[in-house]
Design a protein that fits this description.
Oligomer: single chain
Number of strands: 4
Distance between the termini: 19 Å
Order of helices and strands: HHHEHEEHEH
Largest sheet: 4 strands, antiparallel
Number of helices: 6
Strand order of the largest sheet: 2-3-1-4
Structural class: alpha+beta
Shape: elongated
Helix content: 25-40%
Radius of gyration: 20 Å
């Protein structure tokens, strides 16, 4: 993993605050040369520091107002095949492997309760899935964020 120094952290903070910033705008904001910013971003981009640049689209805006989290209990030896099958379900927008009482936490979106039932049924139909427990999301209280971590790193 790439070891971030203070300049890298400042650069990432500036990107977190204004993700659409150009290299020139970042250089101006940080008091760095354009070449320095470009080189730093290239170095950071060649590592696993930055996740996907896919824009976060609000599922409700495209007809999926329901969000649910499904805890999936499965047969461990079939995990890889189950994950591949889950990838074919478009309404699954995220999944995490877990330790603890369940094996996967799957974030799904749906058009309504009937659609959520359909999506849950698709998950349960995967060979090796034993059971699933669905929790309806009532609202996102803290959206994904990295800026507080970067700020903490900056402070040392």
């Amino acid at each position: 993993m790439h070891k971030l120094d203070r300049t890298d952290t400042r650069l990432l903070l500036a990107l977190a605050e204004e993700p659409r910033s150009s290299i020139v705008a970042l250089a101006e904001k940080l008091g760095l040369s354009r070449n320095t910013v470009q080189a730093r971003l290239s170095a950071i981009d060649s590592t696993d520091v930055l996740a996907s640049f896919e824009r976060r689209i609000n599922p409700a805006a495209i007809g999926y107002p329901l969000t649910a989290f499904i805890s999936v209990h499965l047969q461990q030896q079939k995990l890889a095949a189950i994950v591949e099958e889950l990838k074919t379900i478009p309404e699954i927008i995220q999944a995490h492997g877990l330790s603890g009482s369940s094996d996967l936490l799957v974030r799904v979106v749906a058009t309504d309760a009937d659609d959520l039932f359909r999506v849950s049924s698709l998950i349960l139909a995967c060979d090796g899935v034993d059971r699933a427990e669905t929790s309806l999301a009532m609202g996102e209280l803290i959206p994904f964020r990295a800026a507080p971590l970067l700020e903490r790193t900056q402070r040392g």
